Amino acid sequence: KARPITPHCVGASCLSLCLCLRARAITMAFSAIEDLEEYMASERTVELFVPGRICLMGEHSDWAGSYRRFNSSLLPGMCLVSGTNQGLYARACRHPSKLIVTSIDQGGNVCGPTEFSMDPQALLAAAATGDHFSYVAGVAYQILVRCHVSGLVLHNYKTDLPARKGLSSSAAACVLAARAFNRVYDLKLTVRGEMDLGYHGEITTPSQCGRMDQCCAFGPRPVLMTFDGDRLDCEELSLKSTLHLVIVELDGTKDTTVILQRLTKCYPVPDDDAQRGVHELLGAINQRIVRAAMAALDCGDMAALGALMDEAQEHFDRLATPLCPSQLTAPNLHRVLRHEPLRKHIFGAKGVGSQGDGCAQLLCRSATDAEAAMRIVETELGMRTMPLQIGASRPVGQAVVPAASFSAASFPASRTTPPALFPLLDADGILKPAILLLVEQAVDAGLAKVVIVVSPEHKGHFEALFRRPPSPREMARLPPRLQRYAEKIREVGAKVELVEQQEQLGLGHAVLCARAALEEEAPTLLLLGDHLYTTAHPEGTSCVRQLLAAYTGTSVMALQRTAEAHVHRYGCATGKWDISGKASWPTRFGDGGDAEPRRVHLTMLVEKPTAEFAATNLAVPGLPEGTYLSAFGLYIITETGALLQWLADAADARGASPTAPPLQLTEALDVLRAESGLQGYLVDGTRFDIGGEPQAFLETVNALAPSLESVSPSEVRGLSRGRSSGGA
Fold first, then answer.
1. In this structure, which long-range contacts are made by residues 608-612, counting pairs with CB atoms below 8 Å and at least 24 apart in sequence?
2. What gap in Å lies between CA 669 and CA 27, rounded to an integer?
3. Mean pLDDT score across all residues of the chain
4. Residue 688: what are its φ and ψ, rounded to 5°?
5. Dmax over Cα atoms in the chain, in whole Å?
6. Of 389, 387, 379, 324, which is closest to residue 357 (Cα–Cα)?
7. Could you tell me the pLDDT band of residue 589, with boundaries at 50, 70 and 90?
8. Residue 313 clears pLDDT 90, i.e. is over it
9. Pick from 485, 390, 386: which is nearest to 166 by CA?
10. Rounded CA separation 323/303 (Å)
């Protein structure tokens, strides 16, 4: 008869046998994973990461807002939710017939490999069990009934997201599965599409998730979610300062089902003042607090955000707790919130999720204060804690400018001077090499390093510009204004690094040549050395700054509208407009303005397509007939290392044959789009290709020349008031 195994009833030999059997089980599990990884090594795999999520403000407003279907007098629900810096890391590839899943949890425990038949009924049955991989099975079912897919291998090889801490680890697993199918099969789903499939996959299981949980699809940044009946809008927000949070496990008891049963009884129409108070809490009060929290995030005012957390908790205690006192009185939660030694380390605090004695979140003043708060909670209150950081996307600090291209159209001028050094009159009335205009835009936008890829024969020209200041004799001949500008060139040049491209083998090859000079873990701005960008932004914001402002952590390329007659000159793109957070959009888009969407979820990139191909494959809803989206020549790449590795592998595959095709960037970007996601953004401005036909260079000169009107006549005369050279 089986008995509990304890040290008192197990001899040393039996205990040794138990340990050996456990060690063997672990060895067998890892052996199976090794076999799986060997299979994946032979397939095209994609790398994936999905974070957890935490609700900063607005819990319960998701389901409350859904009741507007039955009571239009209710206000829409609003919440601020953010992905975390912890999550699920995975690799995925195709399988001909099965869904095979493995995972390793935060403690290193292995689950799987587990196999499921890619049959709808089998997947439904697996989802209904509520077991470890039921969420993945539920998503696979939703994918299978919507899309033509075969199978998938999903290996969750690392997890630093704890389970059951109010961080929606189950939602992260669902989004991970949806993203894996999307990237492996290039289903061209938007982030919202992945989020929706994750939601429908999770509700296929016994889970009682809300609509806000799968917002982890947006990554580790804050998102405003608005719930209006059946409609859900999501708007990504910028984060100016890092949020240092501590999650406290309250070690109490709570029943989320009971909480929801009591609060949902107040809807859709209240019966008494207590229920009307819940409507006020999740309606007008919640909207006011969420909007104020958005403003605090936008200006980086963490003190204001913390005060709003305290206020939100006070309103919840006053208006919601009387409806469910058995679960919401939460003595452990309030013991933490009222613990005076914590207050000097935190801006504010509140409950997490459905509230009750589950978890609390503390918004700390700094990383050091977070450590101090954790020590206080653990030693004085005896509760477990977990640090959590929500930070702004890593700022773009490096740029690469390929400037080694040979322009056949500009021959013989390009034989002695590359297009990047062609002289142009800038808005300040100073005649500058084109590359200097580009570098100034990058440096003025805050970048600390600009890598310029040059040909060996022209490297000396770039060194003369950025490395060698004018001689004393030359400086004496310059008017004071240009002497000052010479000093500025020296300062800008300190941020420039020159690397050589021995042979011009394509734009992708030029970017690859910069590899040794780039930090591969950091995002990279790419500017084309034979292009110039002028702004049409109403506030004069440069095109580089516009793209940097649009960057949210996902790779993004600048786009422009292009007529059908010109698509054969450019890399072109198509996709779906991102209309998150907008109530409605016009059916046709004009030439700019705040009423139009600018961000596009890209689904295809093509290098210099024919007009016929564009008409068939690249039309974008809302654009006038015969108008398409083409590359503007500015890119921000998040996955710098992955892009460079793909280019290196492609260069090796092409070999050194003189007949090998050029290594283009568009193909690499399309792979990046499919595997990691790529957005497009319509900038306010004009791109000039000075390395093309001579007519294009003339158009550039003429386009820039009118800006001289902004320079006063005295300044213009001052530019030529230096001493005459009088010969050598």
1. 608/567, 608/568, 608/569, 608/570, 608/571, 608/572, 609/567, 609/568, 609/572, 610/567, 610/568, 611/564, 611/565, 611/567, 611/568
2. 40
3. 84
4. -120, 125
5. 111
6. 324
7. very low
8. yes
9. 386
10. 31
**DSSP per-residue string spanning 199-214:** HHHHHTTT----TTGG
- DSSP-derived secondary structure for 71-93: -TTSPPEEEEEEEEEEEEEEEEE
Alpha carbon separation from 441 to 19, 396, 399, 436 (Å, rounded): 64, 14, 11, 9
Above 70 in pLDDT, residue 162?
A: no
| Pairing, β 222-228 against β 231-236 | antiparallel
> Tokens at residue 185, please?
């099969």
The residue behind tokens 């969750």 is 156
Residue 324, CB half-sphere, CA atoms under 13 Å: how many?
Answer: 23
CA dist 448 and 442 (Å) reads 9
Predicted confidence (pLDDT) at residue 17 exceeds the cutoff of 70: no
Q: Which two tokens stand for residue 308?
A: 């709003």
Angle of helix 302-319 relative to helix 286-299, nearest 10 degrees, comes to 170
> Which pair of structure tokens corresponds to residue 344?
């000097």
3-state secondary structure 564-628: HHHHHHCEEEEEEECCCCCCCCCCCCCCCCCCCCCEEEEEEEEECCCHHHHHHHCCCCCCCCCEE
Rounded Cα–Cα distance for residues 450 and 496 (Å): 5
Are 669 and 557 a contacting pair, CB within 8 Å?
yes
What is d(CA 7, CA 3) in angstroms, rounded to the nearest whole number? 12
| Residue pair 45/92 in contact by the 8 Å Cβ criterion | yes
**Of 498-512, 651-665, 673-687, 689-703, which has the strongest mean pLDDT?**
498-512
353 and 257 in contact (C-beta within 8 Å)? no
**Is the Cβ–Cβ distance between 90 and 180 less than 8 Å?**
yes
d(CA 72, CA 380): 48
Whether the Cβ atoms of residue 364 and residue 346 lie closer than 8 Å to each other: yes
- Asked whether the whole model's pTM tops 0.85, one would answer no
Cβ atoms of residues 347 and 303 within 8 Å: yes
For residue range 28-41, list pLDDT tens digits in order. 444 576 777 778 77
Q: At what angle do helices 191-203 and 169-185 cross, to 10 degrees?
A: 130
User: d(Cα 392, Cα 220) in Å, to the nearest integer?
Assistant: 8
More confident residue, 328 or 426: 328
Helix H or strand E encompassing 297: helix 286-299
**Checking phi first, is residue 566 left (phi over 0); if not, alpha (psi -120 to 50) or beta?**
alpha
Alpha carbon distance 670, 678 (integer Å): 8
Backbone angles phi, psi at 616, to 5 degrees: -85, -35
Which three-class secondary structure state does DSSP give residue 506? coil
Residue whose tokens read 């590839």: 93
Say if residues 626 and 571 touch (Cβ distance below 8 Å). no
Separation CA 505–CA 151 (nearest Å) = 38
Closest CA to 377 of 344, 336, 347: 336
pLDDT band with cut points at 50, 70 and 90 for residue 487: confident
Positive or negative: CA dihedral 444, 697, 507, 47: positive
